[in-house]
């Protein structure tokens, strides 16, 4: 059932109410930039954007705050992140409302994104007491050899629209406990979510007595983002977005010998073996392929199926796609929301046309729907395309719900097909054969940063490091020892012997 005109009109008001609840003040609003909802195509609010001078001032303030913040003991730095997590828990529904309205996610995914923020705060608070360094045996008597980890400096964060707050929190929670300060440039599409997340952090900082400039938000355009990338005061740039963006950012930061964490494109695949539990695989595939309307960096875009089960699985998939409820996520019964904008819709249509020109057959989906109810919004039917060979379109990431189905005869062929694309983020295999599973996650198997067994390509937990290889950029965020990227390592030798022996037996008089 479509939204009523009253419900459409009230969307902007409800978003403003949630922003106010999170602590966003009227000073944030203006006429420089309009935020629109992909749910309806309607305007949500006008914003005041940062000038180049504002960006420079934010970097300067963060650099100055770093001089104090770096000397605060790490467990005390963790208190800020702990309080942020508590406020995120308190305002989970408010922030999820904004994320849903601005990014177009279904309710459970919007709530799940905020839960990711809460989870990384919990993780980072614990990590603040575990910034461990090693002690190594010295070859010289009376010497201690060890490593220590120190704060790095200002961390610049550039985030994408599809996860408007979660990826920011992955970086910010770890950067803050590491002793760094943060300057955040959010996506130009999802500024409102950024305002709310930053306002809650500002409250946590104030209530914890930390320096107020350890975090700064710059709502700015591409030129403002360039200033953040090129500024030598920014020790680390963590950027999430397209491969094109990464190709621009990486050389600019490298030129000044800065550091980067790049989370770029994903062209993720699952291999379905003859022994796979097809019902389990079906559920994993559908969620990974159509969740967030195919607009996740970990969305499943390729399906490599053994020739003995491809027809059976494809039939199940087409049937399942036919049951998907497509519509505004404000209605709980809908599982597939809109594409973010017209550009995404046009890219999807072009990819489908290219696939057919290259020998593919569209088995289902691809059509725009709900045009009468939401003429300015872009709802589409998720598509399944049977491909006869590894065509060029399959090697490209299209940020939309298109699933390409291909076949294989033996596992070596499947792995070769899987690894043939330039991206290397997430991957999966569905099998009941342990040898196949182990082969897939071995050094000669999947070449991705994430390799799963009997689970889809999306839905990563914060406890594991997140990131990928090849054109995905090589960055790692979130769990495991990702915290090390936000710190600098020092090797220390302490001589307590009263003598001065040299290493490697060198004699010098």
Automatic annotation (TrEMBL):
What is any Pfam family matched here?
Aldedh
Q: Which residues form the signal peptide?
A: none
State whether keyword NAD applies: yes
Into which EC class is this enzyme placed?
A: oxidoreductase
| SUPFAM superfamilies, alphabetized | ALDH-like
Keyword terms of this UniProt record:
NAD, Oxidoreductase
- What's the EC number here? 1.2.1.3
Instruction: Provide the GO MF annotations for this entry.
Output: aldehyde dehydrogenase (NAD+) activity
Active site: which residues? Answer: 263
Task: Enumerate the spans annotated as Aldehyde dehydrogenase domain.
Answer: 31-489
Q: Belongs to which family? A: Belongs to the aldehyde dehydrogenase family.
Question: What does the subunit comment say?
Answer: Homotetramer.
Q: What is this protein called?
A: aldehyde dehydrogenase (NAD(+))
